[in-house]
Amino acid sequence: MEALLEPVFVFKLNPSFTSKNPYTVHFPNLPKIPSKPLVVATCCAGTPSPSPLLPQDSDQNPLQLSPDRTRDRRKVARIAWEKLVRWSRSWRSKAKTDVLERTKKVVVLGGGSFGTAMAAHVANRKAQMEVSMLVRDPAVCRSINENHFNYKYFPEHKLPENVTATSDAKTALLGADYCLHAVPVQFSTSFLEGIAEHVDPGLPFISLSKGLELNTLRMMSQIIPQALKNPRQPFIALSGPSFALELMNKLPTAMVVASKDKKLAHAVQQLLSCSHLRISTSRDVTGVEIAGALKNVLAIAAGIVEGMNLGNNSMAALVAQGCSEIRWLATKMGGKPATITGLSGTGDIVLTCFVNLSRNKRVGVRLGSGEKLEDILSSMNQVLVAEGVSTAGAVIALAQKYNVKMPVLTAVARIMDSELTPKKAVLELMSLPQVEEV
Length: 438
Fold this sequence. Notes:
Elements (H helix, E strand, L loop, with lengths): L8 E5 L25 E5 L23 H28 L3 H5 L2 E5 L3 H13 L4 E5 L3 H10 L15 E4 L2 H5 L4 E4 L3 H11 L9 E3 L12 H8 L7 E5 L4 H5 L4 E6 L3 H11 L4 E6 L2 H23 L4 H21 L4 H4 L2 H12 L4 H10 L4 H6 L8 H15 L5 H10 L5 H9 L8
Parallel strand pairs: 1-2, 3-4, 3-6, 4-5, 6-7, 7-8, 9-10
Antiparallel strand pairs: 8-9
Helix pairs in contact: 6-7, 10-11, 10-13, 10-14, 10-16, 10-17, 16-17
């Protein structure tokens, strides 16, 4: 009976409407309708009536929350943020600072842009710390020591007073607590063999170099201990989306340190992390290094797409495919898929492929615009040649070794070898079988 107390719909027919139904419809014994307002809908031909079941037009935005809902949503967000801040403060209060306190000297091998930026960063962490840069260019050495500028790479950025430079390996390495290795991969073996006698066997090497040695296919985690003839040389890989210029300008940056020694990774984290540089830790050295090496090759491919004006759809598809190829190889070599989606993987790939500050991408853009590789390389400083150019061939050799198909990165290698033009590479890649996404 309760249902009968609800509003009743009464249908009033148009007088001109005639029904051919000969039977009369009776509704016997209906209860009396209480005196409630009736909802009346008129069904008249040519006179549509608004449906009582649909909301009437109004100026109110249906997506706009009521004041109560808005207050609830803001309260939830505020509580979540306050919890995050409290956790962060608690973590910082418990974080150890003894590593920074007891570190008296850091040596930086190499006077390039990233080595200089990291030297300045470490020096700013503690004014009493000695930061010694081992550089081969006497002019750069004098510029740093006399004027506190690396005139070649950062002529407008003054270096901290506690950064010095030398061309003498023994002087630079004497008494060092940590070593930042910033020598390009292809020059690292000969360089390290030349200074091996001055390296303490317990000196931790933090590698900033990304790439694969062309003929041996070795990563820096293999190159450093073998060149120093010390398989137990402590090793840490530092990687992530980081342009040297932005690091010098103290813009917010996040990177990852990877070491099989968990305590060593945490020690380097304490040494490097500050308000504008977040450092995460990882034990996946292989994944971090492979991602850092292969992203340079993918960046050349991204540059080619841009140089050929193939559009944003092509760029997105290429980078997505490249990320998959890097993941396939890294996991076959023992890396973790999660690493490839992290800072040293996706983070570094996005930065290198989509920002024109990358040397690797600039090489690709020039190739895509029709320039020849020989002309591009001849216009570049030998030390500044993009790592992806030399790494491309090594990547394909690794792919064959581990039986991994890598269409995009293989195409880049063939372009580097002048066996394929960018235009033909695109046509062949687009003609590959359309298979299930892996």
